[in-house]
C-alpha cells in the first residue's frame, strides 16, 4: 500500500496542528523556531475553495490516507444514515491504527500503522496486520510484547476518550485496551470542520 513520504513539518506549517502526524514536542519546537511569513494575497473567488481544500488536506494527512482511500470513505459515509461529516470522522477514528495511537501504544499514527503492519497488534486475541481494520464496540486491543509497551500505555486525552478504556495488571505487566462504543464528535482530537470536507467532495465527485 502506498504511503505519504513527504516532509511532515511542511504540512504542519501549512495546515497547523495535526496530532496524528507528529508528536506534540516536535510540533511546539517547530512552531517556536519557525519565522513568521507574510501571507500571500489570493483572489476572493478562490478563498472558499482554498478553505475547503485545506480542511480536506488536514483530514487526509492527519490520518495518513491516500486520496483514493478518503474518497472511498466519503462514499461509505454518504450512503450511511446520519450526518455525512460525523460518519466520516467516526469511520476514520475507528480505524485500528488510530485506536492504537489513541491508546498511546504509538506516539503518532504513522508509528501505529507500522506496529500494525509488523504484526505487533492483536484484536480479540488474533493478530491483525491491516491498519484500516474497522474496530467495533467490545473489541479488545493488546500487543504481542506487553512489557515493551506497558509503561507508556494510557489513553490520550482521557476526558475526551470515553469510547476507550484500559485495564492494567501491574503484577504481570499486562494490559487490555477496549473499544467501549463508537466515538462521538467531542472525542475527536484535532480541530476540523468536517462539513467543509463534505462540501469539497460534493463539488468534486
From TrEMBL:
Gene3D superfamilies: Ribosomal Protein S4 Delta 41, Chain A, domain 1, RNA-binding S4 domain. The keyword Chloroplast applies. CDD domains: S4 (cd00165). The keyword Transcription regulation does not apply. InterPro entries: Ribosomal_uS4 (IPR022801), Ribosomal_uS4_bac-type (IPR005709), Ribosomal_uS4_CS (IPR018079), Ribosomal_uS4_N (IPR001912), S4_RNA-bd (IPR002942), S4_RNA-bd_sf (IPR036986). It is found in: Plastid, Chloroplast. GO terms for cellular component: chloroplast; small ribosomal subunit. One of its GO terms (biological process) is translation. Residues 94-154 form the RNA-binding S4 domain. Keywords: Chloroplast, Plastid, Ribonucleoprotein, Ribosomal protein, RNA-binding, rRNA-binding. Residues 3-93 form the Small ribosomal subunit protein uS4 N-terminal domain. One of its GO terms (molecular function) is rRNA binding. Part of the 30S ribosomal subunit. Contacts protein S5. The interaction surface between S4 and S5 is involved in control of translational fidelity. Belongs to the universal ribosomal protein uS4 family. One of the primary rRNA binding proteins, it binds directly to 16S rRNA where it nucleates assembly of the body of the 30S subunit. This is Small ribosomal subunit protein uS4c. It comes from Carex agglomerata. The gene is rps4.
Amino acid at each position: 500500500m502506498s504511503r505519504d513520504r513527504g516532509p511532515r513539518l511542511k504540512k504542519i506549517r501549512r495546515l497547523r496542528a495535526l496530532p496524528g502526524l507528529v508528536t506534540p514536542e516536535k510540533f511546539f519546537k517547530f512552531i517556536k523556531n519557525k519565522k513568521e511569513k507574510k501571507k500571500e494575497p489570493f483572489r476572493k473567488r478562490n478563498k472558499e475553495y482554498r478553505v475547503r481544500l485545506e480542511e480536506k488536506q488536514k483530514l487526509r494527512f492527519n490520518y495518513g490516507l491516500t486520496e483514493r482511500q478518503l474518497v472511498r470513505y466519503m462514499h461509505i459515509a454518504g450512503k450511511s444514515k446520519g450526518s455525512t461529516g460525523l460518519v466520516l470522522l467516526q469511520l476514520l477514528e475507528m480505524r485500528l491504527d488510530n485506536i492504537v495511537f489513541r491508546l498511546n501504544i504509538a506516539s503518532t499514527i504513522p508509528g501505529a500503522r507500522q506496529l500494525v503492519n509488523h504484526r505487533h497488534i492483536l484484536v480479540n486475541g488474533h493478530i491483525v496486520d491491516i491498519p484500516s481494520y474497522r474496530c467495533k464496540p467490545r473489541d479488545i486491543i493488546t500487543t504481542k510484547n506487553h512489557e515493551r509497551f506497558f509503561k507508556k500505555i494510557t489513553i490520550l486525552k482521557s476526558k475526551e476518550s470515553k469510547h476507550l478504556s484500559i485495564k492494567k495488571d501491574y503484577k504481570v505487566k499486562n494490559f487490555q485496551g477496549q473499544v467501549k462504543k463508537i466515538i462521538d464528535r467531542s472525542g475527536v482530537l484535532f480541530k476540523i470542520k468536517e462539513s467543509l470536507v463534505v462540501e469539497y467532495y460534493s463539488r468534486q465527485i
